[in-house]
Amino acid sequence: MSGVSLELITDPFIYNLVELGTRGGIASINQKYAKANNKYMKDFDPSKPSSHILYTDCENLYGAAMMQPLPTEVDLEYPPELHDHHNCYPLAPTHKKVKMEELSSYSQNLWKDLNGENASKVVTKKLIPTLENKDHYILHYRNLQLYLELGMKVTKIHQIVEFHQSRWLKTYIDFNSQKRKEANNVFEKEFYKLMNNSVFGKTMEDIRRHRNVKLMTDQKKLVKYTSKPSFDHFQIFNQHLVGIENKKVNILLNKPIYVGQAILDISKALMYEFHYKIMKPMYGEDIRLLFTDTGVPIKEFIGLRPKMYSLIYDDDNTEQEKKTAKGIKKCAVKKQLKHANYKECLFQNATTMNSMKLIKSQNYELFVNHIVKKGLSNFDEKRFWTNHIKSYAYGHFKI
After folding, report:
1. Which of 2, 46, 64, 196 is the most buried if burial means most Cβ atoms within 10 Å?
2. Structure pTM?
3. CA distances to 13, 105, 284 from 159, in Å
4. What is the C-alpha to C-alpha distance for residues 121 and 107, in angstroms, rounded to an integer?
């Protein structure tokens, strides 16, 4: 449909540069509790200040990014005078491992209460918006322009990649978006959404993770393949059959990953532009970003950690709940969790145990597994929490 033939990267240095500059979407909770008080609420109290909670969503965010003209490696400085202004939504997110000693005393005590006094914290790398200076930060030039416009400073330029750009995906994205609008059932709506997202997914395919898999019934061949330097692991199915997985010796890097990297960066730029160029000028410093990830008035919001929140809203004069809980099946969230559970978890540091049934596969045999696991938790390591409500982004001068 686009009529464009994409050029593949042949320079290993540039390919690695683009790979290192690939960062996924941001998911964070910036303020854990908010309650609206305005004339649209049933329990409006005119004696208290008027406040609103607005839920906004960029529909087809990656599709919007794919319609833009399609890296640079720099050192960025985050001036302290921007910290308060940018605390709720820091620019230039980065992958970071948060160690126990970096957590606030509040978060450290919460961790011990939830997991035991001597429980060790698993340090995992997560994408976190911070106010720290960035060294060797790889990003799309459009993001760099925006970050400089919003006050960040470049202290050093390491690498610049020159490329040609055009809106070559716009026709395809517009076609699917229009078809999605015209769809009159859920299947068609999801199908045309997937048509857009699948293109993005193929541009981000990690060829390095591909494996060669062989099924072995001969012991000599089994020894041969497990003795290779490329051997990764094996799976015993029965006494006569073993699966062997080997890493690929030769890898053909034939995916246009620079497209995916640009889409991810531009999608962040679109969100930052909306927050800092539209919402902030409209509402000033009174606006607070609660979380990232309807035209109905929201009454109360409780966010425990990224992708684990609950909100109450009025729909046709009926109070409704919207709940999410990463790691818990949607049916379990719907049946077992209430807004009150989130509130108890936030204000009393309570946890929940949730049961669910999962269809699992072991040795290629399907079975139903009934599990009980910890559900709601108030622990969040992506920000420096001074109490259960207030937090700072890492790198803030007040920490």
Report:
1. 196
2. 0.80
3. 11, 40, 36
4. 12
